[in-house]
Write a structure and sequence with these properties.
The structure is a single chain. The chain is mainly alpha-helical. The chain has 2 domains: 81 residues, no CATH class; 26 residues, no CATH class. The chain has 6 helices and 2 strands, in the order H-H-H-H-H-H-E-E. Strands 1-2 form a two-stranded antiparallel ribbon. A hairpin with an 8-residue loop joins strand 1 and strand 2. Helix 3 packs across helix 4 and helix 4 packs antiparallel against helix 5. The radius of gyration is 26 Å and the shape is elongated. The chain starts with 13 loop residues before the first helix and ends with a strand. The C terminus is likely disordered.
């Protein structure tokens, strides 16, 4: 049986090229432009070629490390005049970073509050009274 359709443009050399691409902090999707193919083609190659799939996983980790290193450099004051806001925006979009934490499911907020107050040093306490949750009904006790 003869296969019909366009021959693949995949080349095993793309594995190393993808790694080099990621060392510049660039995304897997952007590699499509380097190969002159559609993004969907890259994902198809990743599903069909185990070595390319492995290179994709490595490249994603390498790219993330590059981007995080830039952030560390900015935070340490080593990147004068750098675009902190642009870096944050990039991290939120590329790596799905977020400013807030989503909490799903049941949480025991009484325990969380009590625990937080118990571990907070007195010098940092926002108030003089501490909420105690004891067996007497959870009444407030002033300290």
């Amino acid at each position: 049986m003869v296969k019909k359709g366009r021959p693949t443009r995949y080349k095993p050399a793309y594995c190393q090229l993808l790694i080099e691409h990621a060392k510049r902090g660039l995304s897997f999707d952007a590699f499509a432009a380097d190969c002159d193919v559609n993004i969907d083609t890259l994902y198809a190659w990743s599903g069909k070629h185990p070595l390319f799939s492995e290179a994709k996983k490595k490249a994603e980790a390498i790219s993330q490390k590059v981007l995080e290193s830039i952030g560390v450099s900015i935070a340490a004051g080593k990147s004068k005049g750098s675009g902190t806001g642009a870096w944050i925006f990039l991290m939120k979009n590329r790596l799905k970073w977020s400013d807030r934490v989503e909490v799903n499911g049941n949480t025991n907020s009484d325990f969380t509050l009590k625990y937080a107050l118990d571990i907070l040093p007195e010098s940092l306490s926002p108030r003089k009274s501490v909420i105690k949750n004891d067996d007497s009904g959870g009444e407030n006790q002033n300290g």
